[in-house]
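Appendix B. One record, verbatim.
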Amino acid sequence: MSIRKELLGTASDGRRYERYVLEDESTGGYIAVLNLGCILHQICIPDRNGELVDVALGYDTPEEYAATHSFFGAILGRYANRIANGTFTIDGKEYHVSLNERGFNSLHGGFSGFHNKIFDTELDGDTLVLTYHSPDDEEGYPGNLTLSERVSFRGGRIDLKYTCTTDKDTVVNISNHSFFNLNGQGNGDILEQELKLNCSCYCPCDDKLIPTGELRAVKGTPFDFTEGKLYGKDIHDKTDPMMAGAHGYDVCYAVDGWDGSLRQIATAKSERTGIVMKTYTTLPAMQLFTGNMLGMFPIFKNGKAGSEYVPYGAFCLETQNFPNAMNTPEFGNDVVLRAGQEVTSETVYEFGL
């Protein structure tokens, strides 16, 4: 594997936008990563005919990512997914973080979460290391937190390893929000692509998309992907209020048999290109999102290389801790990072035919 660095311009604070291209000689594919939000800018994979297909949605320039807050390809933090009322308590002290989702939830770290930060970069052999120092009280979160992401691309595997430390007790939930289309970004919708999940339970939510704390069996519901099925099979099911409210999939699953080890949780495939994507994680949950509103608003309509995005034009497999876990004891998932301690996680997206 080789890495090359490209300079893309200057941000408003005078720092340089950088793009790193990680080439995988064993497959002929490559990925591109921005120092802005650790964004996976391109994921170019050989299809069954040997032609490279970019399977990651996004924009052409860092300035477009910075202006839109779309989360395309970006890291999420301090807390991925939702915190109800933007409120949580650690050892009796209540904290309030930004209510950036319609004024009643905190979503993906707030108005200026990690997705919109410029990271420091260095190379460690054939691994790209991106680091951000989040100051105490940023977006309302306690503690000076240091986040490091290590990115490598070998044998068709994008390996994302996260490490966080803090000097004050805080909450942490790091994820990646790549939008994938295995037909190629901008090549229509994903409804005829297939997904199989090693997840037999999902998290029912209230009308504000906050989990109730129940883990409900997927069997007999439109959320069942345990045997594998096309995204389009049940995506328009209006009998379930969660499906009807989201106009598609926007649901958190529990990983079967979770024990903190790296395990496969998903297999997605496109018959058109022959590309298969397997997802592995050490984390206990995963949010499936099917780009339900893509193409319906200007920031979600026009993408890279003149592409026009459409509803259901991508899927997201956001590996993570459970949404609102600090306020939901039923999950039994401690997301508090104590001062002086370290938390790590790993997610792998593996591509093949």
